[in-house]
């Protein structure tokens, strides 16, 4: 049944993530903060990182550790459920399939629709890898995700490629759609100063699927190149040793604030995103860094991996190569390093693509239209 929404009244969406937030999940907060017609309330089981100031009001967390453990086990009860009932949300929006499964019981108890955003590992990791991870939440998801597929109201995949994989996994095609994260076009925009010659930028968590080892190997055959790596992860020490052994001049800067990432995207000559499918099946949805780079007008050399082809037009905004093809990666990087006019043309085209397809404000409008539809809200004209 449709509900008439009064002018000026903002319905509430409860945005759930177990940990508010992991360092690499800035995009979830920024998506929530971009809403204008809906009021987001963050719901989680622990506060783990910095929260955007505009999202701190009304944040819902368990009252103590015992309550957190109880809620994690049952998905019900305690201060979380009590405060959520008082907030009177009109829908729940969980991020990653693992958290969607965790919110099923509460959605049923509150008689609320549940939207689950599918973002990568929750679709691409094999069942065996999820179970072998040692994480109880992942193991439970591997064994019980059929319940989520059956009972979840709607599923949003971050790329068309991930949507197709989700449907192949068993998510219902009629209830699984694509919705891009979007990018802040004001924060990520081209700079006015000349770019630093020979600087290759690579941004991401240092894990197998990012393809950093392939990038370092590709750069070993090029001269006058400096690699700047932003991000942290379990492979950092190994990758630093690889760079040293191959004579690749590399700076590993660790994690950096978002504005510093944007600054480097304006300074570097090109962005490299050579993602690969990891041995355990882990793969990207659509790396935010590729979209952010496009908004900054930096050409990218990337792989034909998951959703990346939706953000890179081969030969127009950058180049694409086969996963793991280090020779092709080196050749394309070399061509861009040697072609100032080519880089400039691709940079203009990349910015235009970001504006057309990934504008965060426009994506927020589309998300709110989905919220209206799922909650049965009719807006007064």
Please specify the SSE layout and strand pairing.
Blueprint: E1 3-5, E2 12-16, E3 19-20, H1 26-33, E4 39-43, E5 46-47, H2 65-74, H3 78-87, E6 91-95, H4 97-110, E7 114-118, H5 121-124, H6 127-132, H7 136-151, E8 154-157, H8 160-169, E9 176-178, E10 199-203, H9 212-219, E11 226-230, H10 236-246, E12 249-254, H11 258-267, E13 270-273, H12 288-295, E14 300-303, E15 318-321, H13 326-338, H14 340-357, H15 360-375, E16 377-379
The strand count comes to 16
Q: What is the global morphology?
A: globular
The top level CATH class name of the largest domain: Alpha Beta
Strand-residue fraction? Answer: 15-25%
Index terms:
alpha/beta, 15 helices, Rossmann fold, 2 domains, 6-stranded parallel beta sheet, single chain, globular
């Amino acid at each position: 049944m449709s509900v008439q929404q009064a002018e000026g009244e903002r319905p509430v969406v409860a945005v759930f993530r177990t940990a508010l937030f992991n360092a690499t999940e800035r995009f979830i907060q920024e998506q929530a903060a971009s809403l204008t017609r809906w009021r987001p309330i963050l719901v989680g089981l622990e506060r783990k990182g910095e929260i955007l100031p505009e999202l701190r009001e009304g944040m819902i967390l368990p009252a103590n550790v015992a309550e957190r453990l109880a809620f994690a086990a049952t998905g019900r009860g305690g201060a979380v459920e009590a405060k959520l009932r008082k907030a009177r949300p009109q829908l729940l929006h969980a991020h990653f399939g693992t958290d969607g499964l965790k919110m099923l019981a509460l959605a049923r108890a509150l008689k609320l629709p549940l939207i689950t955003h599918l973002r990568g590992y929750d679709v691409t990791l094999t069942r065996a890898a999820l179970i072998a991870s040692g994480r109880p939440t992942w193991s439970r998801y591997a064994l019980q995700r059929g319940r989520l597929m059956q009972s979840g109201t709607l599923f949003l995949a971050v790329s068309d490629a991930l949507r197709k994989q989700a449907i192949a996994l068993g998510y219902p095609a009629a209830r699984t759609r694509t919705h891009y994260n979007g990018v802040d076009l004001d924060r990520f925009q081209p700079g006015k100063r000349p770019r630093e010659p020979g600087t290759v930028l690579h941004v991401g968590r240092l894990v197998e699927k990012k393809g950093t080892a392939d990038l370092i190997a590709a750069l070993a055959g090029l001269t006058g190149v400096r690699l700047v790596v932003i991000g942290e992860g379990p492979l950092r020490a190994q990758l630093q040793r690889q760079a040293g052994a191959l004579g690749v001049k590399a700076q590993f800067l660790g994690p950096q604030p978002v504005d510093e990432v944007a600054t480097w995207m304006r300074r570097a000559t090109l962005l490299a995103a050579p993602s690969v499918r990891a041995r355990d099946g882990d793969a990207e949805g659509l790396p935010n860094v590729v979209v952010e780079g496009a908004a900054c007008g930096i050409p990218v050399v990337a792989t034909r991996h998951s959703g990346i082809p939706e953000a890179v037009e081969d030969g127009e905004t950058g180049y694409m190569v086969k996963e793991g093809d280090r020779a092709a990666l080196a050749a394309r990087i070399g061509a861009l390093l040697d072609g100032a006019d080519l880089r400039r043309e691709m940079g203009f085209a990349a910015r235009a693509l970001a504006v057309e397809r990934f504008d965060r404000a426009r994506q927020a409008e589309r998300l709110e239209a989905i919220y209206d539809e799922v909650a049965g809200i009719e807006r007064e004209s």
